[in-house]
Amino acid sequence: MSASLFNLQREHLTYLQQAYTDLLASHDLDSIAIYSGHASPHFGDDHTPTFQTYGHFMHWVGMADIQHSWLVIQPNKRPQLYLYAPADFWHLPTQLPEEPWVTEFELHLCSEKITPTLAGRAAVIGNIEATTRLALDAQYQPDPLVKALDELRMFKTAYEIACLGEANRLAMAGHQAAQAAFIGASAELDIQLAYLGASRQRESDVPYQNIIGLNEHAGVLHYQHYDLNSPTQRHSLLVDAGRRFRGYCADITRTYAGPDAPTIYRDLIDSIHQLKDTLVESVAPGVEFISLHKQMHFLLADILIANDLFQGSAQEAVDEGITRAFCPHGLGHSLGLQVHDVAGLRQPDGTPLPAPEQHPALRLTRTLRPGMVVTIEPGFYYIPMLLEPLRDKALPINWRRVDSLANCGGIRIEDNVVVTESGFKNLTP
User: Fold this and answer.
1) Do 122 and 52 sit in the same domain of this protein?
2) Amino acid 131: pLDDT
3) What pLDDT is stored for residue 315 in this prediction?
4) DSSP-based three-state secondary structure for 236
5) Residue 288 marked ligand-binding
6) Domain boundary among 106, 127, 153
7) Residue 217 assigned ligand-binding role
8) Alpha-carbon gap, residue 411 to 381, rounded angstroms
9) Are 333 and 141 in contact (CB under 8 A)?
10) What is the mean pLDDT of each run of 10 residues along the chain (429 residues)?
11) Do 317 and 237 share a structural domain?
12) Which positions does UniProt annotate for Mn(2+) 1 binding (predicted)?
């Protein structure tokens, strides 16, 4: 760990200690215990799914695989870390890295699963079993406190932004390898393996299941399989894939035209790249994210018209829901310890701030402020179930040209962007 990153992490922990002290005082609490969580077996089985540490625990510790452990925060005291690390020959016990930040905690190595003793008025948060709740004389998951902690995570420290930047750097190496594998006529599984190898991670470590879609699969927004065989024709590749660094997530998407793609598809990829750049450059403090999302739809309408896919006006394309049929998802979301990070659909005071009725898939409705990190991910897709209802309407859609894209599936371009004091910083090279 570099000295500069440790100094940033130490400042991050100092900031968290003060922020938690203030929240404990405002919620009339003497302590808060955060449970890391643990994996539960599949129903009727003894195997567990991939585990991810509870976000508020990770906010302090920065490790995504700690189970059965506790963190107790009290004012004017070092955080108490009760790390479950039993003697075990079946699995390698959890180990903290030999890094100076560990000394910022009062460390207790626990060979058994424990329940910490809490002093005074206490709150407990995390996915805690009912029997454990009964053993603790504390408020469980108090909603106002959890919402306040979520809001704290909405604004990233310099340490967190550095981690997100490194996650992006590592993920981009994977994207470059995926593109090379596509050029080499690989199957989806081979492209996935190339991505994992270049980004230096195993599949159970990715922050979300990578989306590797060839041809029509690029039009399935959360495509969840990897074909084992290469297609006979290569029209397109969409790669939506990430990486963690100290718990923080990169979420990047790139789309490539194959040798069998029509010229219009290549032109559309260039246009969506330009659209993405325009929206990234619009990121700044005080900007409403919903406004950026609406701007995306008008820019998409311009692309439809410029490529002779729609022969009406941009306003008509938006009003008639045509742009929503070609891009049914939101422009982006908050990014941090979770890919779809917390508090994106709430006011700063915790009250709901839901997505507009016309754009129900939007995951972020906030006014942008310095320290927020968001994704900007415009898309353009050929999705038959969404386009079919438009065929029955008297709309000036050039269906012959639209249908020429059927084998290509779709396009999505996604960058990760920090809102700065004066504008933005794009973390995605």
Assistant:
1) yes
2) 77
3) 98
4) strand
5) no
6) 153
7) no
8) 6
9) no
10) 87 97 97 96 94 97 96 96 94 89 94 93 93 86 97 98 98 98 98 98 97 98 98 98 98 98 98 98 98 98 98 98 98 98 97 96 98 98 98 97 98 98 96
11) yes
12) 251, 333, 377, 414
Tokens of 230: 């290469």
Give the residue from 110, 125, 153 where a domain finishes: 153
pLDDT of residue 1: 54
Q: Please tell me the predicted confidence (pLDDT) of residue 2.
A: 76
Pair 240, 382 in one domain: yes
Ramachandran bin of 343, using left for φ above 0, alpha for ψ from -120 to 50, beta for the remaining angles: left
141: left (phi > 0), else alpha (psi -120 to 50), else beta? Answer: left
251 is in an annotated binding site: yes
Shared domain for 388 and 268, answered yes or no, is: yes
Residue 88, annotated ligand binder? no
The number of domains in the chain is 2
Tokens of 275: 């659209």
Q: In what order do the strands lie in the sheet with 415-419?
A: 373-376, 415-419, 424-426
Q: Does 28 share its domain with 49?
A: yes
In three-state form (DSSP H/G/I as H, E/B as E, the rest C), the secondary structure along 158-198 is HHHHHHHHHHHHHHHHHHHHHHHHHHCCCCHHHHHHHHHHH
pTM to 2 decimals? 0.97
In this structure, the dihedral spanned by the alpha carbons of residues 379, 385, 389 and 394, taken in order and rounded to 10 degrees, is: 50
Domain hosting 226: range is: 158-426
Clarify whether residues 242 and 391 are in a common domain.
Answer: yes
Rounded Cα distance between 81 and 54, Å, is 14
Q: What is the pLDDT of residue 297?
A: 98
177 and 110, same structural domain?
Answer: no
Q: Residue 145 belongs to a domain with what CATH number?
A: 3.40.350.10
Q: What residue type is 381 in one-letter code?
A: Y
Total residue count of the chain as it appears in this document:
429
In order, the DSSP letters of 114-159 are: ------SSEEEESS--HHHHHHS-SEES-HHHHHHHHHHHHS--HH
Q: Does residue 45 have a known ligand-binding role?
A: no
